[in-house]
Design brief:
The protein is 57% helix and 5% strand. The chain has five helices and two strands. Strands 1-2 form a two-stranded antiparallel ribbon. α1 crosses α5, α2 packs across α3 and α3 crosses α4. It starts with 20 loop residues before the first helix and ends with a helix.
Length: 126
Amino acid sequence: MYNQQLPMDGNTVNNPPSLNAGAGVFGKNAERNSNDRIKHLLKSFGLRTSLIRLKVIDALLTAAQSERSLGVRGIHSQLLELDIPLSFLSVREVLKRLCSEGVITLNPDKSYSLHQQAAAVLDGLA
């Protein structure tokens, strides 16, 4: 049986690019750029980069752009909607750590937001 994807003569097969090939690439580049900014932010506060920290801060930035405020449950729900399977306790612990390091602040209404100093670091990269 002939498989078009496997080369028969030792040469690699060059598949022609599909029409939608660029759409995913641009999305990944935008996400990578956002992650680079968050990585720089964490580094400037002396914190290691972890996937959960990246995702939590990204969720807070996304909420701030749409002028919403999120608490622990809101952030956890938003991460679950993005198919990021993190436990509620993990999200809460990351938020507590980011608060203690001064990256984010806990507002009186129990929502979280980026600290002014952290926002200044991100604005310096824009």
